């Protein structure tokens, strides 16, 4: 869940906050879950909601100075510009390709392939029909193939 929250926010601290908030809230509301088999998708959906809420709140509260760069921006910059150092990792090119996908396609790819979720679980988490999940997966695979063939890692 932490990795998913980080993929959504691209901010380690925000991802940690979102996951912690979700665990605390779920401990209080677990009794509302009717089907224990839905626990995983329920938790991921809640993490997604909380992360998106934190992102919205962060955008409205953020005040930036033109000449000053925050520590979070420096950390995010180092994550994205450290491509040469990551080349030794066999999955780094693929990870960069996935990171360059549009947000919806990136979420579907992440949940389906990296978190090993079924189409139904992805559907529940993203609150979209299963057919839409399948079409987004297909679109994401096509975009990823294009990006990898063209070595196009920019957004």
Automatic annotation (TrEMBL):
Source organism, top-level taxon: Bacteria
UniProt keyword Transcription, yes or no: yes
Signal sequence region: none
Keywords tagged on the record: Sigma factor, Transcription, Transcription regulation
Residue span, RNA polymerase sigma factor 70 region 4 type domain: 98-144
Entry-linked InterPro entries: RNA_pol_sigma-70-like (IPR039425), RNA_pol_sigma-70_dom (IPR014284), RNA_pol_sigma70_r2 (IPR007627), RNA_pol_sigma70_r4_t2 (IPR013249), RNA_pol_sigma_r2 (IPR013325), RNA_pol_sigma_r3/r4-like (IPR013324), WH-like_DNA-bd_sf (IPR036388)
Pfam family, one: Sigma70_r2
Domain called RNA polymerase sigma-70 region: residue spans: 2-59
Keyword Transcription regulation: yes
Family classification: Belongs to the sigma-70 factor family. ECF subfamily.
Identification of the protein by name: Sigma-70 family RNA polymerase sigma factor
Species per Swiss-Prot/TrEMBL record: Paraglaciecola aquimarina
């Amino acid at each position: 869940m932490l990795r998913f929250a980080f993929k959504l926010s691209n901010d380690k601290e925000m991802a940690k906050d979102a996951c912690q908030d979700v665990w605390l809230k779920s401990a209080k509301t677990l009794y509302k879950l009717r089907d224990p088999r839905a626990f995983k998708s329920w938790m991921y959906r809640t993490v997604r909601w909380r992360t998106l809420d934190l992102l919205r709140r962060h955008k409205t509260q953020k005040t930036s100075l033109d000449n000053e760069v925050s520590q979070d921006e420096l950390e995010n910059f180092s994550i994205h510009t450290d491509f040469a150092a990551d080349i030794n990792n066999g999955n780094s090119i693929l990870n960069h390709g996935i990171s360059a996908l549009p947000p919806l396609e990136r979420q579907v790819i992440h949940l389906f392939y990296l978190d090993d979720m079924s189409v139904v679980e992805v559907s529940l988490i993203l609150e979209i029909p299963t057919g839409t999940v399948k079409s987004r997966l297909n679109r994401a695979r096509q975009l990823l193939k294009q990006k990898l063939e063209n070595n196009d890692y920019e957004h």
